[in-house]
Write a structure and sequence with these properties.
single chain, 337 residues, alpha/beta, 434 Repressor (Amino-terminal Domain), Rossmann fold, 3 domains, six-stranded parallel β-sheet, 43% helix, elongated, disordered N terminus, transcription, transcription regulation, transcription cis-regulatory region binding
């Protein structure tokens, strides 16, 4: 079917004629104005869907000063299976039924997201921004606060000025994971951390060390690799450590890929997971329910995080104070169906 020309594209007037109401009432109904009867709003939405109406965003921007775009700055997150898909699905769910649509912008370098954020603000490409991989003194957060530009970060910072965020409780994950390992008799715990420049690395270390100190067990931080290293690098680093004297008897692994890499390293050395080496993995994909031998895990629901990020950002765009828009996502035992 040939694409409609601009002149043939359905407009709010088209909807108004079919619904038998004014163009102004259609506009308010599409904006979900509670002063318009729910029946009228439902009728307008039904007609709009049937005729393929889409808003003229250029006209909207001239009229309202808003783009109705949310920008997601999306790094690869190779250590988490399906990070981008889960995050986009959650954000899209929260935006469904609103005038907003999502534009994902890739981030493949440490300084790239800062440059992208500056361009979005400078060129008014969006009404709000979502990004991740926060640092204690994050220049992106400082810039957006100074510009008073709406954003929500996936992760916290140590900046004194409150800012909106959604963050997984990495402290509690590491604390609880280490506690479970101690409870099954582990005496020498190790953890694989993200690079220290990331805020969640500090939270993971703090939670891990809390349990270690409370129980007086031996511990170490795995070196020669970090959580974001390529899987082969993680596997080789763990294999080298377990080929050395006095290796740990338990591992805390804060990512799906790290968990698989550790399993490969341990089994390649002829060790038995769950007997000679105990593991606890933070998973976001649900895949560890299918891994054999079974590996204990705790869950991070990225879809729910995406929904919360978008919901808080819409509230921030509408003027709510940043201090009221902060959420720490609890640790889940199993993937939420």
């Amino acid at each position: 079917m040939p694409e409609r020309s601009k002149a043939q594209r359905p407009t709010q007037r088209t909807i108004a004629e079919q619904a038998g109401i004014s163009v102004g009432a259609v506009s308010r109904a599409l904006a979900d104005d509670p002063l318009i009867a729910e029946g009228t709003r439902a009728l307008v939405r039904k007609i709009a869907e049937e005729i393929g109406y889409t808003p003229d965003r250029a006209a909207q921007r001239l009229r309202t000063g808003r783009t109705h775009v949310i920008s997601l700055i999306l790094p690869p997150h190779d250590e988490i299976f399906g990070f981008g898909t889960s995050m986009i699905r959650g954000i899209s769910t929260a935006l469904d039924g609103t005038p907003y649509h999502l534009v994902a912008m890739p981030d493949f370098g440490r300084g790239e997201s800062e440059a992208t954020i500056r361009r979005v603000v400078r060129d008014s490409l969006a009404d709000g921004i979502i990004f991740s991989r926060t640092e204690p003194d994050d220049p992106r957060i400082r810039f957006l606060l100074e510009e008073d530009f709406p954003f929500v970060s996936h992760g916290r910072s140590e900046l004194a000025t409150p800012h909106p965020y959604v963050d997984y409780d990495n402290f509690e994950f590491a604390r609880r994971a280490a506690k479970r390992l101690v409870a099954i008799g582990a005496q020498h715990l190790a953890i694989l951390l993200p690079p220290r420049r990331f805020m969640f690395s500090h939270h993971l270390l703090h939670g891990f060390m809390t349990t270690v100190r409370e129980n007086g067990v031996r511990h170490e931080i795995l070196d020669n690799a970090t959580l974001v290293s390529p899987p082969d690098t993680i596997k080789d680093a763990i294999a080298r450590r377990y080929a050395e004297p006095d290796p740990p008897d338990a591992l805390v692994l804060p990512g799906d890929m790290a968990g698989l890499a550790a399993l490969a390293a341990i089994q390649d050395l002829g060790l038995v997971p769950g007997r000679e080496v105990h593991l606890i993995v933070k998973q976001a994909s649900g895949m560890f329910g299918l891994v054999r031998p079974r590996v204990e895990s705790l869950y991070e629901d990225l879809g729910a995080a995406g929904e919360k990020l978008a919901a808080l950002l819409l509230r921030r765009i509408n003027g709510e104070p940043a201090a009221a828009l902060q959420f720490v996502q609890p640790v889940a035992e199993t993937p939420v169906s």
